[in-house]
Amino acid sequence: MISFKGAHYPKSVILYAVYFYVRFAVSYRDLEEIMAERGVAVDHATLNRWAEKYAGAIANEAHRRKAPTGRSWRMDETYVKVKGRWTYLYRAIDKCGKTLDFMLSERRDEVAATAFFTKVIASNGWPDKVVIDKSGSNAAGLFNMNCLLVMHNWCWLIDVLQVKYLNNIIEQDHRFIKNITRPMQTFKSFNSAAATLAGIEVAHMIRKGQFNRPGKSGFEQFAEFAG
Fold first, then answer.
1. Model confidence over 149-184: pLDDT tens digits?
2. With left for phi above 0 and alpha for psi between -120 and 50, is residue 39 left, alpha or beta?
3. Residue 82 pairs with which residues in a beta bridge?
4. pLDDT (tens digit per residue) in 34-78
5. Any idea where the domains of the chain sit in the sequence?
6. CA-CA distance, 151 to 165, in Å (whole number)?
7. Which is nearest to 75 in space by CA: 122, 125, 142?
8. Which residues make Cβ contacts (< 8 Å) with residue 214, sequence separation at least 6?
């Protein structure tokens, strides 16, 4: 359960603000005005702190509750600006479009790709097949994963396909994330970006119905992850 001890606002108000920010394309100043329209006086700096403190924690809990995903994956990275510099948001979905995992990185290289595949496999199990673009670093990351299988005497390897048109599904999936982050312009810190993006990914997963909660609104599902 996520602690709201010491908060000067009710838990429901904080969760509403964080959910609204990660689900819809608004800036903190837009959200400040929206909250004021609902009778809640809270400045944009406080809203920033809420997103940074709670969005990532909610995302961690959400990942423990998501429905099982498929073993045929699509992996790609997109760009996010942090402190005026481009960083890389690694993302993976299965062939049905369900989000597997994501990771923000300051680098786009073999080390980052290997770290991402290690993370996504830890939370979803080993895939049968992964489709990537022509990126050499992503191919190298998967080669490292296959080396682990060989070292542990597994009798099969991950099938790696570098076919651009097969990856269109994840390139389309990137659009939701980009549409939400566009009004945010640029993040002020890497940690803030990582936490906020994690919340955006969870809102996207809710939108895609990955938590098997029929009849529950998006906000109700998001709030449940906070305990």
1. 999 999 899 999 998 777 889 999 999 999 999 888
2. left
3. 85, 187
4. 999 999 999 999 999 999 999 999 999 999 999 999 999 999 999
5. 11-67+188-224, 72-173
6. 32
7. 142
8. none
**What does the mean pLDDT of the chain come to?**
94
Token couple for 133: 């673009």
Q: What is the pTM of this model?
A: 0.93
Kindly write down the DSSP assignment for every residue of the chain, as one continuous string: ----TT-SS-HHHHHHHHHHHHHS---HHHHHHHHHHTT----HHHHHHHHHHHHHHHHHHHHHHPPP--SEEEEEEEEEEETTEEEEEEEEEETT--EEEEEEES--SHHHHHHHHHHHHHHH---SEEEE-S-HHHHHHHHHHHHHHHHTT-S---EEEE-GGGGHHHHHHHHHHHHHHGGG--BSSHHHHHHHHHHHHHHHHHHTTTT--TT--HHHHHHHTT-
Hey, what are 203's tokens? 């809102």
Matching residue, tokens 């803030």: 192
For residue 156, which amino acid is it? W
Specify the pLDDT at position 165: 79
Residue 205 makes CB contacts below 8 A (sequence gap 6+) with 62, 66, 98, 99, 211
Q: Which CATH architecture has domain 72-173?
A: 2-Layer Sandwich (3.30)
